[in-house]
Amino acid sequence: MSIKDLHVLPKVKDSQTFVYAEHCKIDQDEKSIALHDVDGKTQVPCSNLTTLLVGPGTSITHAAIRTLAENGCLVFWTGEMGVRFYAQGNGETRLARNLLRQARLYSSSELRIQVVRKMYEMRFPEKLDESLTLQQIRGKEGVRVRDSYAKMSRETGIEWSGRSYKRNDWRAADSINRALSSAHSCLYGITQAAIISAGYSTALGFIHTGKMLSFVYDIADLYKADVTVPLAFKVVAEGEENLESRIRKACRDAFYESRILSRIIPDIDKVLDVKIPDDMQNEFDIDDALPGGLWDGGNTSVQGGVSYEIAEIDDEELPF
Question: Looking at residue 148, what is its pLDDT?
Answer without folding.
Answer: 94
